[in-house]
Amino acid sequence: MKRNLTWKQFFFILPLLAIVSVFSLYPILSSFSYTLFDYRTNDQQHAKLFLKSSLNVSLFYEDCDYIAYYLEGDIPLVEESDRAAFKSVSADLKAMLARFEGAESIVALSGKDAAELSAFLDDIGARMDAVYGRYPDVQFYNRDKMPVLLDEMRSCFINTNFTGLESYKALLSDKRFASSLGHTLLFTGVSVAIELLLGLSLALIMNKAIKGVGIVRTTSLIPWAIPTAVSALIWSYLYDGGSGVVAQVFYKLGFIAAPEHMLLSASGAMAAAILADVWKTTPYMALLLLAGLQTIEPGLYESASIDGATGCKAFLRITLPLLKPSILVALLFRTLDAFRVYDLIAVLTGGGPGGATETLSVYAYKVMVSQSNYGYGSVIVVAMFACVAAIAFVFVRVLGAELIHDD
């Protein structure tokens, strides 16, 4: 019978809820918020999340100061009647400096403020051009610097980079995303299927009460204990076209046309990544399945044997049905882990050749870190989150195993 959660019980789980919120929900919500903006750290116009037009005050203030300073050097080179015009521009610039003195580095602008500042720049630019234009033969110290500084000041105006759901629309037509998704699904499907078969076989062996089974269990876990980046580096040497043992063996067996094709062809690189992943994580799959096998009551097999059931029939009628929850856990964990693969691909192939092994994680990394485009990179990450959630839902619904039982 189900019972409602009392307030006292709720307070006991409150710390857990707080931890989940901080370390799980907050990153997810932050990533989703980034997807709504054109957020790029290599461009000051998009380096933050701007919901409305803003002004980079620090740069604007600095440019105002430079113009006022350079203008002082050109004042002595004009006639007395034009010095007043230059001094008037200089006074207006200093008034603007006083207006923004002590302000934050980025301030929001209303439409009226933006129009006023834009008109101010146009006005001082026209007034300086008028004075400079009357002295075409005079070699001013700073005439050529003024247009550059004015352009820089105009670039201090930051328009909103809120894009809403436009990035998601762009994702639907992104061929590179579709290609990366295909590579990820191929890598995940093939590697997890092979790992399930090999892991189940290894788990059945380790579950037998035979001599030396302890050594078998220990040695089988060595590949899983090796860090993934180190494992990928080891396999990159084994796949090397010049001296790699695995590449030479595959060439001798006729699997590849040349040893160099192992990592330099699309099919060879994907097969190499899958093989390395199978070697690395099959022990993990076997360990999860072994835990499930050890929960099965041995008396069931004795009863089946008395009834005349063969080993194959006992496996199909007893082992597989009772192992179903463990298979769900193993498949779910490994599928989600394989779908998010990054370090193995990054070290072994870098997503190459020609993007043939570029997975979603690698693509997201390149967009976010290499291109500093955190807005679109977050869209890719959110799409990965949706795929992971869909995979988890399908596994639980299709396999139909109840991992949590009510008392």
**Content of β-strand:** under 5%
Count of DSSP helices?
A: 19
Shape: elongated
Distance between the termini: 7 Å
Summarize the helix and strand pattern as letters: HEHHEHHEHHHHHHHHHHHHHH
- CATH homology superfamily name of the largest domain: MetI-like
Output the CATH topology of the largest domain: MetI-like fold
Briefly, what CATH class of the largest domain?
Mainly Alpha
Q: Outline the low-pLDDT stretches.
A: none
Q: Structural class, judged by helices and strands?
A: mainly alpha
The strand line-up of the biggest sheet is: 2-1-3
Q: How many structural units, i.e. domains?
A: 3
Largest sheet: 3 strands, antiparallel
What percent of the residues sit in helical stretches (DSSP H or I)?
55-70%
Mean pLDDT across residues: 86
- C-alpha-based Rg, rounded: 33 Å
The number of strands is: 3
Give short descriptive properties of this protein.
407 residues; mainly alpha; MetI-like fold; elongated
Summarize the structure.
This protein folds into 3 domains: 45 residues, no CATH class; 105 residues; 226 residues, MetI-like fold (Orthogonal Bundle).
Note the topology.
Blueprint: H1 7-35, E1 54-56, H2 57-74, H3 80-100, E2 106-108, H4 111-133, H5 145-154, E3 157-158, H6 166-172, H7 175-206, H8 213-220, H9 222-225, H10 228-238, H11 245-253, H12 261-264, H13 266-293, H14 298-306, H15 311-322, H16 324-339, H17 343-348, H18 360-370, H19 374-399
Antiparallel strand pairs: 1-2, 1-3
Explain how this protein is built.
The protein is mostly helical and 407 residues long. The chain contains 19 helices and three strands.
